[in-house]
Each structure stands twice: as structure tokens, then as C-alpha cells.
Design a protein that fits this description.
By secondary structure, the protein is of the alpha/beta class. It contains 13 helices and nine strands. The protein has one domain (28-157, 210-321): 3-Layer(aba) Sandwich (Rossmann fold). It has helices spanning 2-16, 18-25, 83-86, 96-107, 125-134, 158-162, 173-179, 181-192, 202-205, 213-238, 262-274, 282-286, 302-321; strands at residues 31-34, 38-41, 46-49, 52-55, 74-80, 112-117, 143-148, 242-247, 277-279. The strands form three sheets. A five-stranded parallel beta sheet has the order 6-5-7-8-9, sandwiched between helices.
């Protein structure tokens, strides 16, 4: 009877499992194998993902056609990122790269702007660094925008940065998480415990010890991330391009009673120390009645993309187009 009950629960959880839903949605039919980055988008392909039209231009980017060689007089922005930049369940004209081009063109009608959406679902900073080296710099961008997601530091997960927990030493844990929706559901509840309320003080009791194996793993992830981030910033400087990091918050950060926003603070401090521009839309998201997300807690909706584009547009105006560039 217990086995039957667990099987029924597993089937129910599989029906509503956000992990499986996202895996199905992000098994991108437009992927092709890539020798150094694992995968890339198929140039010239078109169709739909989650019922939304999807077109890839001849250079392998989602959006309208652009020439590899930058036309004279054009201010070109290259946006690197994962499925948030590429677009999940949103048309290309509703994404922050397209919004940014409209905003800049409206604010500076005497200039010509071209914003290239180079986002690829599943990319992390390793692939984004390679993409910049192999393809991005050939476009001669004036500005490179790198979109940061909370799992970007290598070897870490969302909840490592939102609600760190003691690791549970369960035999076969990774196998269970990979194959059972019920196991993922239990882990999700464990990870979220103490976010909204500190029930009987247990939420804080589960806080990750400072020198635990998990804490050291997360710190290693940050060190690797910052090393690659520094490489990207240096490449941009060598090629006369400005460099900007866009931090996309996770919806669970707004549910956290502590409101720590630790990754944002860590990135802001690193950016200040190394002269890297940082855009943090979390305060603007928090000011809304409901955080602007679409299909899951990761991907912003149209309103979220508009906010991010406005903030990037303000930064460009203040730092690159207003007199002497900073």
C-alpha cells in the first residue's frame, strides 16, 4: 500500500513538476552541437517554443538580421545571457534587448542603435566567455551586457545563494533528484524552509555553517565566476567596448523575510572594486505589487524586461553618451 501511495504521489508530482516542465520547454529544437560551447542556436532556423514564434538570424542570434561588420555610425550593443536574454515564453520584441533598442532610438534620435540578442538557453559564464571570444567581439560592439542568473557561479544552485542550507547526506541523493519528482519536491520544500517565516526558530537553525563543505563549494564557485568575469571585462577593454553586468533576481529572493539579496551585494562590491558597471533591478521589482515573472520563478515577464531595458538605457545615457564616457 505504501508503494502504491508513493507511486501515485510521484505521478501527481510529475504532472506539476516545474523542473520537468522547464526541461521539456528548454529542450530547444533550435539547438545544434558546438565544438567548444556544447551547443548554439541554428542560424536561419525558425518555429516556436512554448507557442511563441522563434526566429534565428543568419549569425545564430534570436532576432532580426544584422551584419557581422558593424555599419559606420552605428552604436552596437551585444547582450549575452541564457534563456532569460534569449527569451522564455515571450516574443522577441518583448525582451530587454529589443526594448533597449527602442528606448535608445527614442532618446537619441540623431544616433543609430543596434542591440543584438546573443542569449542562448542553458548558457553559463563559461559558454558566455567563449561566445564573446569566438563570435561576440567580431561584431565590434560598443557595449557588452552580460546577464547574470543566480546559478551562474560554477557548481552552485539557486538556493545556494538565496537560502543556504546544510547539505543532507542521503545515499543516492543525486540519482533520486535526477529521476524522481517527489524527491525534487521534498528538496524544494527543504530549500524554501525558513524563507517566509522562521517557524519555531528552525529556519535559522538550518543555516549553513560558515566553514561547511557547502560554504566552501559556494565560495569556490564565486572565485571561478569572478575570474571569468574579469577576463570578459579585460577583453572588452582591449577591444574598446564598455562592459556591463545585468543581475536578474530570482522570485524567491522577494519572499525572503531577511531580504538579504546577497549575490547582488557581492557583485556590486566586485564591480565597484574592478570598475565594472552593475545594473540591479531588484529594488524596482520589489516596488511592484507582484514581482514580474512569467512561466516560473526565474524568467521575468514583459514588465520585468521593460524595467531592465529602462535601467540599461539610463546607464548608457549617463556613462557612454553624456559627454566624456566614464
Amino acid at each position: 500500500m505504501l508503494l502504491v501511495l508513493l507511486t501515485m504521489l510521484e505521478l501527481v508530482k510529475r504532472r506539476f513538476d516545474p523542473y520537468l516542465s522547464r526541461e521539456r520547454g528548454m529542450q530547444n529544437p533550435f539547438w545544434q552541437k558546438h565544438p567548444s560551447r556544447g551547443h548554439s542556436l541554428k542560424p536561419g532556423d525558425y518555429g516556436s517554443i512554448w507557442g511563441v514564434p522563434f526566429h534565428i538570424n543568419r549569425l545564430g542570434f534570436r532576432g532580426p538580421e544584422v551584419s557581422r561588420e558593424k555599419p559606420r555610425g552605428v552604436f552596437r550593443v551585444l547582450c549575452l545571457g541564457d534563456s532569460i536574454t534569449m527569451g522564455a515564453a515571450l516574443p522577441e520584441e518583448a525582451l530587454y534587448p529589443a526594448d533597449l533598442q527602442k528606448i535608445l532610438s527614442a532618446r537619441y534620435p540623431s544616433k543609430i542603435f543596434e542591440v543584438v540578442n546573443a542569449g542562448v538557453s542553458g548558457y553559463m559564464i563559461e559558454q558566455e566567455l567563449l561566445q564573446l571570444k569566438e563570435d561576440g567581439l567580431k561584431l565590434s560592439p560598443d557595449l557588452v551586457v552580460l546577464q547574470y542568473t543566480l546559478y551562474d557561479p560554477p557548481g552552485t544552485s539557486f538556493y545556494d545563494h538565496i537560502n543556504p542550507r546544510r547539505e543532507l547526506a542521503i545515499p543516492g541523493k543525486q540519482f533520486l533528484l535526477a529521476h524522481l519528482a517527489l524527491a525534487r519536491y521534498v528538496e524544494e520544500k527543504y530549500n524554501r524552509f525558513g524563507l517566509r517565516r522562521n517557524v519555531l526558530g528552525w529556519g535559522d537553525l538550518l543555516a549553513m555553517p560558515k566553514h561547511s563543505e557547502a560554504a566552501l563549494r559556494i565560495e569556490r564557485g564565486w572565485q571561478e565566476y569572478f575570474a571569468r568575469l574579469s577576463q570578459m571585462a579585460e577583453l572588452c577593454r582591449e577591444n574598446n567596448a564598455a562592459f556591463l553586468v545585468l543581475i536578474v533576481p530570482h522570485r524567491a529572493q522577494f519572499e525572503d523575510r531577511r531580504r538579504e539579496f546577497g549575490p547582488q551585494k557581492k557583485l556590486a562590491a566586485f564591480g565597484k572594486e574592478h570598475h565594472i558597471g552593475i545594473i540591479d533591478p531588484a529594488p524596482a521589482f520589489a516596488a511592484l505589487k507582484k514581482p514580474p515573472y512569467v512561466v516560473d520563478p526565474v524568467h521575468p515577464n514583459m514588465e520585468g524586461h521593460e524595467i531592465m531595458a529602462e535601467m540599461i538605457g539610463d546607464w548608457v545615457g549617463q556613462n557612454l553618451l553624456a559627454g566624456q564616457p566614464q
